[in-house]
Amino acid sequence: MKTSLVSREVGTVVSKITALLSATSPPEIVLNRHCPECEFHDRCRKRAIEKNDLSLLGLTDKEKAKFNRKGIFTVNQLSYTFRPRRRAKRFAGRSEKYHHSLKALAVREGKTHLVGNVQLQIEGTPVFFDVEGLSDRDFYYLIGLLVGSEPAAQHHTLWATEATDEQKIWRGLLDILSSN
Phi, psi (5° rounding) for residue 31? Predict the structure, then answer.
């Protein structure tokens, strides 16, 4: 590589850094897949949530710029653009394209949305369980368990009154699961 090309690249990078350092406002928030490794991850994420920024959806810079050109700058704005459509029969075998607007809608409503006809096939014995605990004490005190399906479903509740009983309820859970 020629030195003139390298010096030109270095010059543009230095000018960008100078502009960032001399600016009175902080740079634009961009969350990406490397963020969990950064020491400022929590602060940036909090700011992005406050601003309702599109980078919360994991968009690339190109996708974000595309939405910005259309006048969409927040997750809330993007969520209103989702419109479910009927698929043509000729596309029935293909998978549905990914909709960022549907993900934005799910974030806004706090729900999980599924695209298409989802068929759940549960083979074997279905098991549903719920664990209650105190996160500040790292203590789990209740396990609720439903084994099987109606009308022959078995309901179990396992309680721990003290931290020493916690190991007993986990063993009880394993015993119930291994007996079915």
Answer: -90, 135
User: CA–CA separation, 67 vs 11, rounded Å?
Assistant: 31
The tens digit of pLDDT for each residue in 23-72 reads: 888 777 778 777 778 888 888 888 888 888 888 888 888 999 999 999 99
Answer for the pair 48, 31: CB distance below 8 angstroms, yes or no: yes
Beta bridge mates, 144: 130, 157
Three-state SS for 41?
helix
Q: Which tokens belong to 76?
A: 């809330």
CA dist., res. 172 & res. 180, Å (int): 13
- b/e map of 6-29 (b: 16 or more CB within 10 Å)? eeeeeeeeeeeeeeeeeeeeeeeb
- Domain residue ranges of the chain, discontinuous segments joined by +: 27-109, 127-179
